[in-house]
Amino acid sequence: MTVHPSLQTSIDAWTHSIEAISALVNPLVEGEWNRATELPGWSVRDVVSHVIGLECEMLGDPRPIHTLPRDLFHIKDELSRYMEVQVDVRRCHTAPEMTSELEYTIIRRSRQLRNEKREPDATVRGPLPGMETTLEEALRIRVFDVWLHEQDLRRALGTPGNLDSPGAQIVQERLLSGLPKVVAKKAAAPADSSVVLDVSGPMEFIRTVRVDAQGRGTLDSSVSLGPTVTLAMDWETYVRLAAGRVRPAAVAGQLKIDGDPELADAILRNFAITP
């Protein structure tokens, strides 16, 4: 085996999600590529273009030389401008061009990952501009991104599924790792408070964020007695909120809130951990 065992889980999860994306979009007719997703300004075609573009960059391909039009009002900062280049350059591509490039990119990237001989802690370029990270972390970031975009496409196309796939496991870990910062820092939960997150569905779990006397938040799986706030929701709603796909008001019917309403509101306003 050339692949380090600790990388295999991420490679398998990436493969599962990106092949699911390919299966979703292969039968689409031209008009379906223009369906809007929950990502501002991005259609189904744009999400697939983004996935293709970042995988090509992970392969070491040069970025396109492309000037963005001035009327892309969803571009708010330099990061979104950077990400938009790989998207906008493909907006004129036809459905067959999109599916062909996606399939070819999957073949190339799968071959690269199968032949990966570097150690998990090897320094590599990350998926974000100017980013360097370990190979293991870079793969986990790609799983996180690809699985979330698979779900973006499924919601846009009305084809739910894979909410408990291998990629979902990695996404759950990553989203939960950001929860203490959301509660303790962004929402400024008071010292000695506790917040319980109760998530139902295919990836059900209960976690408690405890804020100590110094204002630091920690996450554990025990259930707090008499928590300051309890937030209950289903797994897909949690993903959409934590990944910044929707605002709390848009999914209010899927949320159950108990405890301090002001703290609950502050947490939900700061719930997204993605850029």
Account of the 3D structure:
The chain has helices at 5-25, 44-58, 78-88, 95-114, 135-157, 166-177, 179-186, 235-242, 261-269, and strands at 123-125, 132-134, 194-200, 205-211, 217-220, 229-234, 256-259. With 275 residues, the protein is of the alpha+beta class. The chain folds into two domains: 5-157, dinb family like domain (Four Helix Bundle (Hemerythrin (Met), subunit A), Up-down Bundle), CATH 1.20.120; 172-269, SCP2 sterol-binding domain (Nonspecific Lipid-transfer Protein, Chain A). The strands form two sheets. It has a five-stranded mixed sheet. It has a two-stranded antiparallel ribbon with strand order 1-2. The longest helix has 23 residues, at 135-157. The two termini are 36 Å apart. The model has no long low-confidence stretch (mean pLDDT 95).
Task: Set out the fold topology.
Elements: H1 5-25, H2 44-58, H3 78-88, H4 95-114, E1 123-125, E2 132-134, H5 135-157, H6 166-177, H7 179-186, E3 194-200, E4 205-211, E5 217-220, E6 229-234, H8 235-242, E7 256-259, H9 261-269
Parallel strand pairs: 3-6
Antiparallel strand pairs: 1-2, 3-4, 4-5, 6-7
Helix pairs in contact: 1-4, 1-5, 1-6, 2-3, 2-4, 2-5, 5-6
